[in-house]
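Inputs:
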Amino acid sequence: MSEREISSAVIRRLPRYYRYLGELLENNVVRISSKELSIRMKVTASQIRQDLNNFGGFGQQGYGYNVEYLHDEIGKILGLDATQNMIIIGAGNLGQALANYDFDRIGFKVIGIFDINPRLEGLAVRGVEIQMVDTLEQFIKDHEIHVATLTVPKKQARSIAKQLETWGIRAIWNFAPTDLHLSEDVCVKNVHLDESLMTLSYNLRHRGKEKYSYKSYMED
Ligand SMILES: NC(=O)c1ccc[n+]([C@@H]2O[C@H](COP(=O)([O-])OP(=O)(O)OC[C@H]3O[C@@H](n4cnc5c(N)ncnc54)[C@H](O)[C@@H]3O)[C@@H](O)[C@H]2O)c1
């Protein structure tokens, strides 16, 4: 089956498999059956088998999955088998917090942080100095950038995103609370913590009315 046919729901579940398998690896677990994995992950074994069958299976009947192999293969499917360079535009509270976080663990390396505020110029976050945005175009020309993270105020986000597209950026991790309206050549992943909080608020308000199912676990 070609990757194009794989549903976005399956792709959304892959990072969770990757995380669980990583934990198993840390605990020196060599092999695991879909049943055992299903108990740990609180999803059905058939869901796991179905999801992994999209990529060719990886397991042997009655023998289970080789944890390291499956972890590596899912990592490759997710594109985590090579270092990906990331830049951050907007070095305020959120931009600096993200720059301080260890995304190297999953292969993302912050190599540039940009802002317009001259008071931030030269300040280093985890060893990376904040630069002024007027150097951004040249920086993109000089480096292979895989992902641009957008942590600027909402008003600036669309125009900066458009510029980034013009300069050849093909993946934007957008934290600004606005839709970016770029061409289909650019992958955009929006992250909105307040929307997550709103759904938590909904769950709190409606708890007990609906059973918390396996399905909702996997959609978190
Ligand atoms: N997605 C989420 O869950 C989430 C959570 C918190 C904040 N946000 C959003 O993230 C953004 C940043 O929030 P914050 O709290 O860090 O704000 P902040 O004011 O601390 O930081 C914004 C930074 O962007 C810089 N900036 C402004 N215009 C710029 C430009 N043209 N080029 C480069 N840098 C520019 C500012 O100088 C400032 O340093 C806001 O849009 C906010 O709404 C999203």
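The longest strand covers residues 108-115. Flag for discussion at group meeting.
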